[in-house]
Amino acid sequence: MKVLRRIDEGIARLEGWLVVALVLGVVLVATLQTLLRNALDSGFEWADEAVRWATLWIAFLGASLATHRKKHIALDVATRLLPRRLRRVVETMTGLGATVVAAMLAWGSLRFVREIGSTEPPVFGDRMPRTPLEMIVPATFAVMSFRFLLHLLTGLVDRRPPEEPKPV
């Protein structure tokens, strides 16, 4: 378990640095592009497309980080009303379901990217294939599936009763 947690922490650090770099890049490129357009009636032809791709990456990396921190969207209204033991069963089932769904999304999006990659035109003025940029989708779903599984296993190993939910 300890090894899996360390792997997860390493992935989270990498994701965090990527998000910071991408956000800074988006701000820099968008600001520069705006200044060039307004001041010189010019700009970089690749800038708008780069900002769109970076935004996609930021969104998926952010979703993966949220899963790492257990801050993803959760519908736990009904769970809060359950007794502690039953809550653990429900949390185990939802954790298993989230693991399976994320794995299926990883697999399906990987198949989609591989199939569509050969038919879609390259990006950045025909200088780069789009497949490496699209791989963020299956990659983050795979990482999220790993994290849901890790949370599930941690919950099963931890024999203490689940905490009472905090009032909203």
Question: Which percent band covers the strand fraction?
Answer: under 5%
* Average pLDDT for all residues: 88
Shape: elongated
As for the number of domains, it is 1
Structural class: mainly alpha
**Helix-strand string:** HHHHHH
Strand element count: 0
What does this structure look like?
- The protein is mainly α.
- The chain is built from 6 helices and no strands.
- It has helices at 2-40, 47-68, 77-80, 84-117, 131-134, 136-157.
- The longest helix is centred in the N-terminal third of the chain and has 39 residues, at 2-40.
- The protein starts with a helix and ends in an 11-residue tail after the last helix.
Notable features of this structure?
168 residues, 6 helices, mainly alpha
Q: Can you describe this structure in just a few lines?
A:
With 168 residues, the chain is an all-alpha fold.
